[in-house]
Amino acid sequence: MDKEIILENLTGIFSEVLNDGSIVINEESSPADVVGWTSLTNMALITAIENKFKVRFKLKDMMSIQKVGDIVRVLTKYLNAD
Amino acid sequence: MQINSVQFLLFFAVVFFLYYICQKSAARQNIVLLVASYTFYAFADVRMLPLLAGITIAFFVLGLLIEKYEDKKAADYLLVLGLILGVGILLYYKYTNFFLQGFASLLRALGFGVYIRLFSIVMPLGISFFVFRLLSYLIEIHRGTIAASRNIVTFASFVAFFPCMVSGPIDRPNVFLPQLEKARTFSRALATDGMRQVLWGLFKKVAIADTLYKYLDFSGQGATIIVSAIILTFQIYADFSGYSDMAIGLGKILGIKVARNFRYPFFAMNIADFWRRWHISLTSWATDYIYTPLSFSVRKLGVFGSSLSIIITFLVIGLWHGASMSNVVYGFYHGLLFVPLLLSGSFSAVKEIRLSRIGLPVPGDFVKIVVTFLLVAFGMMIFNSESPQAFWGTLANIPINFFEVNFPNGIGTAVLLISALTVFEWIQRDKEYALEVSGIHSRVVRWALYSLILFLLFALGGTPTPYVYQVF
Predict the structure, then answer these.
(1) Chain A contact set for B305 (CB, 8 A)
(2) Could B306 and A40 be called an inter-chain contact, meaning their C-beta atoms sit closer than 8 Å?
(3) Is B340 touching A (CB cutoff 8 A)?
């Protein structure tokens, strides 16, 4: 799965979990500039991402996520391993 | 050797002199730091020095091994070994008798006639602080965020850094260790700032905390107890944040940035906001190493999982403060206060205080600040009680003769000190600490302020009391 498709799916997940249809994200987006992306909603986002892509993150993966680009990187790692 | 004693002042003067003689060599500066830290520790209890040195060496070796085995299973086992070692030492020295007593009570409740002989265990000074520093070191290496230290002197200086040894802050290796790897040259501006912060910390401890301590009276009835709870909350704050300011200031004089521990906690608008401002180094530690992994492992449970994780985290924070049921209840109480925030989604929302035209909080935010403070003060009563039963006894006395506020010597000085501290902190709330007045250009005004602080320090300073957090 390439980056664009992952980003497209992530945008849908962010919109749904954060209840904001107007959300626009890119690889540089971080909790500082996405309204509602907090340490609490982060856990809900991770769960939704895992369900959507049928992967199971490790704690180490989650700790390394600082921005959307990190989610893309972690997802790419798992999806390419399949 | 108390950090606010003349003995310490002389000790620090010698360390300062030797430290900056070696300012061209980080290695030599670290040797001075380590010798100073171990000397400081030996003054408290020389018998515990081998334990400190031993656990430091053990974690140094474990750090190197975890890094060596990186992603292999062996690294996981080594981390678990380190966690068992660190937590085990903490449990043994701090909690053996507490758990034995609890176990005996349980057996008695089940009808068994048991008698348990308690151990006579001397708790090493600052054990809760240096063990948490050691644990975060191993976890960060395992997570791959830092490299293992290759120099035992540098590492041991981080673990035992004397200004933070007794009452924190709990510094993180990823920020602290890189500072020790470079030589620290004397900076007049930083040292001046450090001395100012030490003065402010000393003032909060000696003039405010020790003075307020004399007014605490939970043996009375009615509103006297409520007033005492408010005084207690300020007393603990002045005591602990005073120590932190001194530790941070001493660090600055030595050219080392120590973690911030307080950010005007009494201007918090909810409990989550309070814990982001109170004992920051502990709460951020607990968030990173307890709450996050816990809530991650139960993420499928949604808000219920988050609530459970936060309550468990605060139970640990409560117990960290000491082996007593009061601390367990204290932790549980604060954990419970988070649940409505989790359910409403305002748990992580950081909101600025809205100001009216006269520069004070708008009524809505003012009410939130007052309510948060009262919830904190209630918690402090639990924290301060010898047992939950004693706390309930104190609570039951509040409705009796409620309107009789009885302080034999009056509370004028206490009210004045609390009001002055609150106003001064409000004015300076954007600064790192309240006496950060480097922005005042007039040297006369600055020195007039320092002189006033010094005068009050000597005028109000009376019977010294031990630091509240020293026993942890």
Answers:
(1) 43
(2) yes
(3) no
B279 is catalytic: no
Whether residue A44 lies within 8 A of chain B, CB to CB, comes out as yes
* Contact: A63, B306; criterion CB under 8 Å: no
Please identify which residue in the block is written with the tokens 């790897």. B181
Tokens (6 digits) for B21: 């003689």
Residue to substitute from B71, B72, B343, B348, interface A, most A β-carbons within 10 A: B348
Distance CA B247, CA B165 (A): 9
Q: Is A24 on the interface with B (CB under 8 A)?
A: no
Average pLDDT, chain B: 90
pLDDT of the residue at B45: 84
Q: What is the pLDDT of residues B12-26, one digit of tens each?
A: 999 999 999 999 999
Nearest to B156 by CA among B174, B133, B126, B128: B133
pLDDT at B313 (0 to 100) = 95
Q: Interface pTM (ipTM) of the complex?
A: 0.81
Q: How far apart are the first and last CA of chain B?
A: 16
* pTM (predicted TM-score): 0.88
List the single best residue of A40, A57, A64 to mutate versus B (max B Cβ within 10 A): A40
CA distance B288 to A69: 21
User: A43–B348: do the CB atoms touch at under 8 Å?
Assistant: no
A81 touches chain B (CB under 8 A): no
Under the banding of pLDDT at 50, 70 and 90, the label for residue A40 is low
Exposure letters B29-63 (e unless 16+ CB within 10 A, then b): bbbbbbebbbbbbeebeeebbeebbebbebbbebb
Bridge partners of B361, per DSSP, are B355
Given CB atoms, is A32 within the 8 Å cutoff of chain B? no
- B329 vs chain A: nearest CA distance in angstroms? 25
Please state, in angstroms and rounded to a whole number, the distance separating the CA atoms of residues B369 and B365.
6
What are B62-92's pLDDT values in tens digits?
A: 999 999 998 788 999 999 999 999 999 999 9
| Cβ–Cβ < 8 Å for B155, B184 | no
Residue B287 is given by DSSP the state I
- State pLDDT tens for residues B351-381: 789 999 999 999 999 999 999 999 999 999 9
